[in-house]
Design brief:
6 helices; single chain; 69% helix; mainly alpha
């Protein structure tokens, strides 16, 4: 696969996850809105990683750590609000999918927070796409 094909694959999955966040929002599943936003951004950043570094993407879910590996190669500075969003989303990665854990995590997210994170994720997603070399 070429770098472009690998990026396109990551992008396809990232877009699907962003669409899923919208479906979760419409159905009132606030925790899953944020989780799918995290998944979407992680996959897009991993796609960008393949463009700026190489195809061997690290097995991490920390979006900020991935961005830091190639941010010196970007033509523009990452806006502070997007840095904050990436840190917030990284905190919502769920490595444990047990019902009691998800239930407790879900209680911490309300509609307003889910809405704000979803809106910010869509904005950051569009901005990140402009970075692709």
């Amino acid at each position: 696969m070429t770098k472009q094909e690998i990026f396109d694959t990551w992008l396809t999955y990232a877009e699907r996850d962003l669409d899923a966040a919208g479906v979760m929002f419409e159905s009132g599943r606030w925790f899953y809105v944020v989780f799918m936003c995290q998944q979407s951004m992680e996959k897009l950043v991993k796609g960008l990683y393949t463009q700026f570094i190489d195809e061997a993407v690290p097995r991490t879910h920390n979006i900020t750590a991935l961005m830091e590996r190639f941010e010196d190669r970007l033509l523009s500075v990452i806006p502070s609000e997007y840095n904050r969003l990436m840190k917030t989303l990284s905190a919502y990665y769920v490595s444990e999918r047990y019902p009691d854990y998800i239930s407790k995590a879900g209680e911490q997210i309300n509609k307003d927070e889910a809405s704000a994170i979803f809106r910010q994720t869509k904005e950051a997603f569009a901005w990140l796409l402009t970075l692709k070399p």
